[in-house]
Amino acid sequence: MDRRTALALMGAATLSACATTGEAPRTGPDGQPLPKLYRISSRDAKRVPFRALDAVNALRQGAGAPALALDPQLSAAAATHSRDMSLQNRPWHFGSDGSSPIDRARRAGFRGRLLGEAISETYESELETVAAWMQEPGARRVLLDREARLMGFAFYQEGNGKIWWTLTTGTAPGGTVPGAA
Q1: Contact residues for 66 (Cβ-Cβ < 8 A; gap 6+)
Q2: Within 13 A of 164's CA, how many CA atoms are on the CB side?
Q3: Of the candidates 139, 148, 100, the residue with the CA atom closest to the CA atom of residue 119
Q4: How far apart are CA 146 and CA 53, in angstroms?
Q5: Cα separation of 66 and 145, whole Å?
């Protein structure tokens, strides 16, 4: 599958997976339309990481990179960071305690090698966020890193609808990359 096909599939999945409030379009104080709210139900919350994994793996396949598997420790570290970014009210890679992505992965019990982290503050779905990350060179490198075999993915949604997303990638324990040349 080429990159164009992978992006088309991801776009189609985005349209089918989006949930909005069903309200009339909201506008800000300047009269400009605000983003539509993507509310994640408790039922959908368990599906979100798998939809993100499928989207990332479709993009990786299009780029000739091996598929990733969800890792519970990386996902736990991502969940901690998503909530912490909300508390700090800023998207950045350091925790309120000064922790780095590597620190958070270790605290969560991850024994592999952390390769990267992508973060976002948005009102968009997980699939729209993955598509946006693909447009940013640093996040794109994290998603398509050929050494990566594991992915952590989590979010925190505030009451106002804003979502804080965190995606991490890493290698198997011991830093091994099965099948790598």
Answers
A1: 60, 146, 149, 179
A2: 20
A3: 139
A4: 15
A5: 9
Tokens coding 25: 């379009």
Q: Residue 151 has what DSSP assignment?
A: E
Task: Tally the residues of the chain.
Answer: 181
Strand partners, 116: 169
The model's pLDDT over 32-89, given as tens digits with 9 standing for 90+, comes to 776 677 889 889 999 999 999 999 999 999 999 999 999 999 999 999 999 999 988 7
Structure tokens at 39: 């509310």
DSSP code for 97: T
Going by their DSSP bridges, the two strands 150-157 and 69-70 should be labelled as: parallel
Farthest CA pair distance, the chain = 56
**Tokens 């780095």 -> residue:** 100
State how far the Cα of 126 lies from the Cα of 105, in Å rounded to an integer. Answer: 21
